[in-house]
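Before any further analysis, backbone shapes were mapped to integers, which produced the following:

***
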Amino acid sequence: MNEIILSVDRMPISNRYLSNNIEDKSPLYNLSLAVSTETGIINMVKPFPVHELRPRYDWLTCYEPEEHLDNVVNIVSEIPNINKDSKIYGFSYKDESFLSRLRCIGYTNCNKIDPVHDLGIEFKPFGIESMQMNFNHVACQNILNRIGPIDLFVFRHVIEHAYDIDEFFDTALGILKQGAYAYIELPCCKRLINSGDPCMLWEEHIYYFTESSFSEYIRRKKIVVYYSKVYNYTFEDCIVLIVQNKKNVSNIDINIFNLNNDLLNARLYKLKFEQRKLSVKAKLKELKSKYTCIALFGAGHLAITFLAALDIGEYFDFVIDDDKNKNKLFLPVLNLPIYSSEILQMRNIKLCLLSLNPQNQEKILAKNQLFMSNGGIFASIFPGTMNDFINI
């Protein structure tokens, strides 16, 4: 049984950067979350249409945390029956950095599945939204026919995008040899859920797991877990699992304590979300009166969710991003213009809120010392961070 925990209207497509054409706009959708009372897993009730999520620009990409990958490579190198000639495949571009690490230590047979031949994708540009949709029993047969069963299949930060998670997971197991392994990586949303962070929402994420709710999903799949660890990061922690394509004969019951805890936190998320919304609006009203002009630094999906989910676009004058591809485009929220960071000095801005991943915020501060020495203030949009703008 699914229980609705949050509903937000008029959410745009985050990758739909707009031109200056007044008719250029993003479609708007309702984004609702529900929690399963049987598993504690949070999921989007009605995912956005896949064709709308397809990127319009070929320069768009996503960066995932990687500091833990060297350690995972060491773990993989110790897996029984995985050797330097083993057939190792990744799902997408997100796996290339891991595969390259394996190649550097002598694993010679590391590749990625082919979006055209294996998944039948014949258009560009495309992203994870299209790949996950075509990763099914047909793709499974295509892969087996083309390269045969795989020894290790890697899919980092993909399963949370899956519209049909069971089909995706079963396909991943289907391309493995019996007893072979899959390396799975996904964001842990526990901290964001517990803090009521609105930026947890993203139309491309269908599922929002905690360590315990994903463990329950794996338990129900009845497969063997070879390795499991949560690696800590500033914004979202990273769940890493290596599972074996082998039936788990152990009779392990559901952890009722973890389930009840996940259900409680999911239900509290809406309350904390609404509290954050009220405090953010009140603070922005105060700051707008004091500083007149407020900028937002970072024109990614975190910024767009922050603005749209809390309905606060009116408090910002423009958005800053040093990706040259984004300059002179507009956000799909009130058509806010995107400029490079040079605008900080040109416009004599005194307050700029940071909407990029907190893990990268120190780099922005280091590059903009002149702005701060001239009295400019940087503060974070994320609750629980040391420089949360609510505390200004």
In short: The chain has two domains: 29-261, 292-391. The chain has a mean pLDDT of 96. The CA atoms of residues 65 and 238 lie 8 Å apart.
